[in-house]
Amino acid sequence: MTIIISTLSVFLIMGAVLIMRKKFEYKICPICIGVAGTWLWILIGIYSGFLDAEKWKLIAAMFMGGSVVGIAYQLERRLDSEERLTWKALFIPVGFVLVYGLINLSWMHLILSLVGISLIAYLFLRKSASKKNSQISDKVAYLEKKMKNCC
């Protein structure tokens, strides 16, 4: 029954996001919000004692694992193609340790994985940001040159 309830939750949250999506300035992935919203209420239910942890932990872990993979794939778009496999090979397993720490309230796993994810994200994404800034500067210089030669 837990899988049916949680799947319906994903559909309901996803539907609500689809309806409200037009009101947001930035794009929101309805499926991502549906999955994340579902595992969030499951965790809150487990921690508050409203949900039986033994019945709901597996569902939460599945959905949280899906979120880890989804985040990795969303962020990989910012990387060069030769960095993407290394990014996923580091980010996803450390993300799974983070999920383990959240589900079991293991502070050691939580802290270590948060430090690991932060370090991985910093190392990979800062290069991406500086490269984009360089590309923007190149485009600006090109446009300025064209404007000077315009008339």
Automatic annotation (TrEMBL):
<keyword id="KW-0472">Membrane</keyword>
<keyword id="KW-1133">Transmembrane helix</keyword>
<protein>
    <submittedName>
        <fullName>Uncharacterized protein</fullName>
    </submittedName>
</protein>
<feature type="transmembrane region" description="Helical">
    <location>
        <begin position="28"/>
        <end position="50"/>
    </location>
</feature>
<feature type="transmembrane region" description="Helical">
    <location>
        <begin position="85"/>
        <end position="103"/>
    </location>
</feature>
<feature type="transmembrane region" description="Helical">
    <location>
        <begin position="6"/>
        <end position="21"/>
    </location>
</feature>
<feature type="transmembrane region" description="Helical">
    <location>
        <begin position="56"/>
        <end position="73"/>
    </location>
</feature>
<keyword id="KW-0812">Transmembrane</keyword>
